[in-house]
Amino acid sequence: VLHDIFCTSMEIPKRLMCGEMPIIPKVTFPAIDIRDVAEAHMKSLYLDNVVSKRFLIVSQNVSPPAQQIAIWLNEEFSRKGYLISTIEAPDFIFKLLSYFSSSASAIIPVLSKRPKYNNSLFINTFSIKPIDTKQSIIEMTYSMIEKGFIPKNF
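^ thats the sequence. predicted structure below, dont judge the formating
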């Protein structure tokens, strides 16, 4: 985390780490480490073949489901006193919750969808091997603890 302002990409790790997600929706989140984005931006200043092009900058062609993120965080942080649920809920639970919660309502269109991406243009053009998503999520979570976005349990 490079700043002291909470942003959307911090939402899921924070909610999981703080026990605010006792059940996990069947959703995926395309992810990329900010260090890879910064490297691509720096390289774009010197590459002629990127002018007027758009690049899909994601670390994996198939994003991990939220439950996988919870499992990674649980593996890393449960021994440090964090209680992280890894229980994936059926879609109908969130459809029901959507009548009472705007955050549940917001995920209804993407429930149980597993979009595929093609990041080969990004990887080949910039010669970047994206940082592993698991590593990125865990390092971001440690940074969020360090910055005070997640209470420290250790």
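The first helix runs from residue 11 to 17.
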